[in-house]
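Quick one, tokens below. Sequence please?
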């Protein structure tokens, strides 16, 4: 924890207390966060923390992003809020790393400035974690103003898909399998590109989620990110960071739920004494604390190794990111469940913070690679398959 990261944490926590906490339930009920929140976060230097200054970011790294996220969860941010506000964390890295200068200027810089919202479209109605099996096609052909890709297909479960000004989209430009996948930036308003519907979910209520369809959508060839048919590899390169981020979501809301539960147990009296006076309650709080600390410590170490590690550590870090995500998701599942239980009927009421975290926790073992898929991947990387 450097002096810089301590200051970053303080800024992030104050931003949540001032700009988020008073309005979060309103945004949950509305089903999305306002666009103005992105501009406010950018003004505080929060949106581009881990992006290079050369593309409009703050020049930090993954460890800075972890510190920022931890502080925001500690101050009361929800997992859904973070998914919506920091949707650029999944929509922009491929563009920042492999996009042309024109794409960076048109999409990355405005998004990091809070002027545009981007989303990442990979999952399709017929499949989720199987990125190599996507079916949305992009056929290249000549156009009056240069070559275009004609896109046909559908995407689902797209975070920020309703509000997005542009979508970094995985498409099939080549043959079957991972070698035929590319990334295209498709702008809202392009003829044939529609948001079919906003999806109602169990949790992440303030994070809008969409189904998208593409019918003969003509996209300029200049919107190709990197080389044609390199999309799978670009996506895979970002998976470690995405999984670490979701692990931070998990232990972040678990730690917050533990804090809320402990405070409630000190204040709530039953049978003439505080709830925390019961040994079974104290032991439950200790077990909740143990799981939070294990998940936090392990995830931080994996994040550190990914940031500063040697190239020969690559495969082991990929596997460890899978394990960190699962460890943190298990902690969130347990801790958020017990926090609701300790709150009793109050915890079951809609609008109670622990109830929100309980619902939000359920998506985390699914998004960014389902636990079952990541466990099998880890088995292969660790030599067990």
């Amino acid at each position: 924890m450097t002096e810089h990261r301590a200051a970053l944490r303080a800024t992030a926590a104050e931003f949540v207390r001032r700009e988020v906490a008073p309005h979060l339930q309103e945004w949950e009920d509305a089903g999305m966060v306002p666009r103005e929140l992105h501009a406010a976060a950018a003004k505080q230097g929060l949106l581009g923390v881990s992006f290079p200054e050369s593309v409009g970011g703050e020049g930090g790294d993954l460890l800075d992003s972890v510190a920022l996220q931890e502080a925001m969860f500690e101050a009361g941010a929800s997992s859904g809020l973070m998914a919506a506000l920091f949707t650029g964390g999944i929509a922009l890295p491929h563009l920042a790393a492999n996009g042309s200068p024109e794409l960076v200027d048109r999409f990355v810089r405005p998004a990091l400035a809070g002027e545009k919202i981007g989303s990442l479209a990979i999952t399709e109605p017929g499949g989720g974690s199987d990125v190599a099996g996507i079916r949305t096609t992009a056929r290249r052909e000549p156009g009056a103003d240069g070559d275009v890709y004609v896109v046909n297909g559908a995407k689902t479960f797209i975070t920020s898909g309703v509000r997005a000004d542009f979508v970094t989209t995985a498409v099939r430009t080549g043959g079957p399998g991972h070698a035929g996948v590319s990334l295209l930036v498709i702008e809202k308003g392009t003829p044939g590109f529609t948001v079919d519907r906003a999806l109602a979910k169990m949790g992440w209520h303030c994070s809008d989620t969409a189904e998208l369809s593409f019918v003969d959508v003509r996209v300029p060839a200049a919107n190709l990110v990197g080389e044609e048919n390199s999309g799978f590899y670009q996506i895979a390169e970002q998976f470690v960071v995405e999984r670490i981020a979701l692990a931070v979501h998990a232990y972040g809301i678990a730690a917050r739920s533990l804090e809320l539960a402990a405070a409630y147990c000190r204040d709530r009296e039953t049978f003439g004494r505080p709830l925390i006076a019961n040994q079974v309650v104290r032991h439950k709080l200790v077990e909740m604390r143990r799981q939070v600390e294990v998940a936090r410590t392990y995830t931080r170490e994996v994040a550190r190794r990914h940031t500063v590690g040697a190239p020969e550590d690559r495969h082991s870090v990929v596997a460890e990111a899978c394990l960190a995500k699962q460890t943190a998701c298990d902690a969130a599942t347990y801790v958020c469940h017990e926090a609701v239980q300790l709150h009793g009927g109050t915890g079951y009421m809609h609008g109670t913070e622990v109830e929100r975290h309980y619902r939000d926790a359920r998506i985390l073992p699914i998004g960014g690679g389902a636990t079952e898929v990541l466990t099998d991947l880890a088995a292969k990387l660790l030599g067990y398959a």
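The two ends are 38 Å apart (CA to CA). The CA atoms of residues 163 and 220 lie 22 Å apart.
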